[in-house]
Design goal:
alpha/beta, HDACs, two-stranded antiparallel sheet, 9 helices, Arginase, Chain A, binds zinc ion, Ureohydrolase_dom_sf, Histone deacetylase family protein, 306 residues
Length: 306
Amino acid sequence: MRAYTHPACATHDPGPGHAERPARLAAVTDALRAAWPALDWHEAPSATRGQLLRVHDDVLLALVLDTPVQQRIALDPDTFLGPGSAEAALRAAGAGVAAVDAVMTGDAGRVFCAVRPPGHHATGSVAMGFCLFNSIAVAAAHACDRHGLERVAVIDFDVHHGNGTQDIFDTDPRVMYLSSHQAPLYPDSGYADERGVGNVVNAPLPPGMDGDGFRQVWRDTLLPALDGFRPQLVLVSAGFDGHRLDPLAQLQLEASDYAWLTGELVAIADRHAHGRLVSMLEGGYDLQALAECSVAHVGVLLDGAA
Ligand SMILES: [Zn+2]
């Protein structure tokens, strides 16, 4: 099993006191290297403009890549562009593209991308919610356009709804988007009646829900929908901010809940997708919980069993 990362992903700095901070990357990569020495680490390449333009417009590309940045610029109250941001965003998106290529050519079975900034709030035209480019969407579009896949699933268990991913694909039946997320919570989307063209499944969860409730929702609603879609590739927006210690939300999940769900996703990838699964880091803002959940998640990806 492969993992992709790049040192540039630590150079995107949204500023003092920001939850989405560079230390998140080392928390994840240090914990993974210590826990799973057998992980096969690769350096993430940069995404190309052509790969980004499959899901983003050229105005957003110009903003992120071509703005001269001497000091941090606020794109919105949460989202910042600094001197290292363009390179970090390119490597984060490029990791997903390389991971898709690796599983499609058979060079790897499952891949985890330890990257930042996160991506799932970025729409086709707007960087928002800590996200500059929507890396998982770039990966999904690459799978469809470069590898000709007709059924790509994006599973998003970050505690926030991936409004950007949904927005990019909600008229594209080649991609199914399935999400559980706390509601109410930023970005105030992802209601159950948002169905796209039948390719979007949203499961809002109430604040305070614990792992039993979380597993029940996945068992009853999301996993059957995913299984019924028969994905040729499983992509995962792996945000660990539903952990009970996370400062940005109020779910009560434990690392074992993420391990359980990962096992279910591996089983579905094995059943329909020749095992092909690519997971990309999204949120997770308590460093200890983030490290623990990443180790649990990747442990199941390595073994194939929770
Ligand atoms: Zn999140």
